[in-house]
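In response to reviewer comment 3 from the previous cycle, which asked for concrete evidence that the modeling workflow produces usable outputs, we include below a single protein chain processed end to end. The sequence was submitted unchanged, and the resulting structure tokens are shown without manual editing.
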Amino acid sequence: MRVHHLNCGSFCPHGARLINGEGGLLEKGLIVCHCLAIETGDGLVLIDTGFGLEDARNPRQLGVYAPLLNLQARPETTALRQLEALGFGAGDVRHIVVTHLDLDHSGGLPDFPDAEVHLLAAELEAAIHPALTDRPRYIGGAHWKHGPRWVTYGAGGDDWFGFESLRILPGIDAQIALVPLPGHTRGHTGVAIETGEGWLLHCGDAYFHHDQVATPPSCPPMLRFFQNLTAADNRARKANGERLRELASRHGDEVTMLCSHDPHELERERSRSADVSPATG
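The workflow returned the following structure tokens.
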């Protein structure tokens, strides 16, 4: 099994020091959309999609997020175009697992209309019937108009390093599980992949910066503000962030963690896997 680490769109707002923890206050920061493409004997599995082709062609459909955060989304940075450069086609993507349905995580769904889309039932319910404060984060009219083949999962499951986990895709030759991490959204989940050399846990937006799961933890101020601002349940988000920090401290030799938006983690994993595409969008 091989895991490809893709950056499917970047945000480059000014204030690098406040966003990335380094650089000048007037320099552009970098927030990536770190997605995974997993090669299995049953085709490809995507973990999140980032932005899709229509987002790149028509960023206005994303509302205020594109200009406010200086979105850099181009056709060549979409998951589809990057997979085509690796020799795959849209039909090779059999399954997509989404950590949640925020617009920067599900924008590429229309590019893979035949894929099954796996997620927690609580997230699909929150997206289809959003609370007033959640409406800006979901743009189903653009990203789901093709009628995704939703496959949802409820509560229960097995223990995974002290977390609840739900095994999915039993018919493929890769061990993948959902690890619910609610807080950022009501049905937010991590995705655990057994790589043969240990576990890789894609934490989605459960944290935004690698130092948040360090001991002691820290986070650049603008990312801290943004996480507090956008959390559906901030108390649950903070509690799960602390649990992830403890996981990293106690089981860092068994579990490699990454989040969706940290360019440092993206480059670290690309160096390990020999993926060489640049992180900048």
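The mean pLDDT is 94. We consider this sufficient to address the reviewer's concern, and the full set will be provided in the supplementary archive.
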